[in-house]
Amino acid sequence: MKLLLIEDDESHAQFIISGLKQAGHTVDHAKDGMDGLFLATEEKYDVMIIDRMVPKLDGLAIIQALRSSNNKTPVLILSSLAKVEERIKGLKAGGDDYLTKPFEFGELMARIEALVRRNSSEQKEQTILKLDDLEMNLLTREVTRSEKPIDLQNKEFRLLEFLMRRPDQVVTRTMLLEGVWDFHFSPNTNLIDAQMSKLRQKVDKDFKRQLIHTVRGAGYKISAKQD
Fold it and tell me: Per-residue b/e over 145-164, b at no fewer than 16 CB within 10 Å?
């Protein structure tokens, strides 16, 4: 798994990072909320572990920002605030689980694994993706817009699926290279632009509303909202 840890307490952070790495997982670490939110929006993670009280931007604000941008990555909140009302605040902000300090690493790991199982189950159940009048059937691999069929090549289908799983979310070229092409380096960003241009011709050309948008200096997003 690839995890994001947002934790400013160095001893807690090293305890968690060491345990996760020993278990064979990859961990990115941010020491404050601003850096954490940047990583959370730039990279794809299986689970995010976010401390309630981090500098620059507190944990609940990070989670609310992620959820408002439709980022559904499971979030485990860490906090020394153990009162029931504090747990409720964390869950209402968009957290998926809440673990109070101090804790045993075994419990942390068990909760992470439970979040991954739950998220995986929810994704498997989702076989049709919809955005406005655009619909994608993941089982039959049929794509329609306003009930008109759109014929997509395999890579175009994967590219559109990647976008539709992240509606209204900015998707960087790096994310596309890793998620669609499985490249972990950037040999030629023109590859993305050329493929995206072909996809837009098929998805947007014959329709009044544009769904695939270029975000200057950042990447792309799919959205029914007009800028």
Answer: beeeebebeeebbbbbbbbb
Residue 146 pLDDT more than 90? yes
Question: In CATH, what number is assigned to the domain containing residue 106?
Answer: 3.40.50.2300
Looking at the structure of the chain, the number of domains it has is: 2
- How far from 42 is each of 36, 146, 169, CA to CA, in Å? 10, 32, 10
Q: 198-214 burial, b for 16+ CB within 10 Å, e for fewer?
A: ebbebbbeeeeebbbbe
Give dist(CA 18, CA 21) in Å, integer: 5
Q: Name the one residue in this structure whose structure tokens are 């794809």.
A: 44
Same domain, 22 and 113: yes
Q: Are residues 45 and 103 in the same domain?
A: yes
Tens digits of residue pLDDT in 51-85: 999 999 999 999 999 998 888 899 999 999 888 89
Q: Say whether both 120 and 134 belong to one domain.
A: no
Looking at residue 114, its amino acid is A
pTM flag (> 0.90): no
Specify whether the CB–CB gap between 115 and 95 falls below 8 A.
no
Quote the CA–CA distance of 184 and 61 in Å, as a whole number. Answer: 30
Domain membership flag for residue 227: no
218 within some domain: yes
Element spanning 87, H or E: helix 84-92
- Domain range for 35 is 2-124
Note the pLDDT tens digit of each residue in 83-96: 889 999 999 999 99
